[in-house]
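Standup notes
- DV: blocked on the single-chain target, sequence here:
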Amino acid sequence: MSPKNKKKLDIIRKKLDQIDNQLLAVIKKRTSLVNEVVKLKENKSEIVDQKRITSILKNIKIKSIKKNIDPKITNRIWKNMIWSYINYERRNFKKK
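- DV (later): unblocked, structure below
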């Protein structure tokens, strides 16, 4: 890699790091809301709402296409996020 391209790469990577920091802040806010949701659920069986998951993924696909983002990328990200939070809810569910 040429020194010029190396410098460009370093600049782009710094921008990616800044975006990662923003994503972490958003994930913290989202986790806080999930904590509120899990407190409202009365049964562990309420944690997985397949209808809602399907609806979310459908909406993300539509929005991705409108924003010219590869929907395969966003679908994978959202599926992983949804199932990560389902796992989190299961670990933090504290009802009878």
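- Follow-up: The longest helix spans residues 3-40.
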